[in-house]
Amino acid sequence: MSCLTEALRYAERGWHVIPLHAPEGAGCSCGKPDCSSIGKHPRTIDGKDSATTDLTTIQEWWKRWPKANVGIRTGECSGIFVLDVDGDDGKRS
Predict the structure, then answer these.
(1) pLDDT at position 92, please?
(2) Predicted structure pTM score
């Protein structure tokens, strides 16, 4: 499935979606050579505050950025929470 299809499915569940940059070559679609969050940061000016369930807005975003990754704003607005455990330090915590 395409990222647009998945973004629309998430929005229909009530999850607030946002387009993210994507890995591109050896870097990120943002074009910053020192990007520390390759493929994981928002493409919109307002960042996570742009997240929405509005299907028209989501379709417009993916028309503009067809290779965008899909991000979901977690927390109260989407009703989902995430526990991210990275590496040994995360496991110990």
Answers:
(1) 82
(2) 0.87
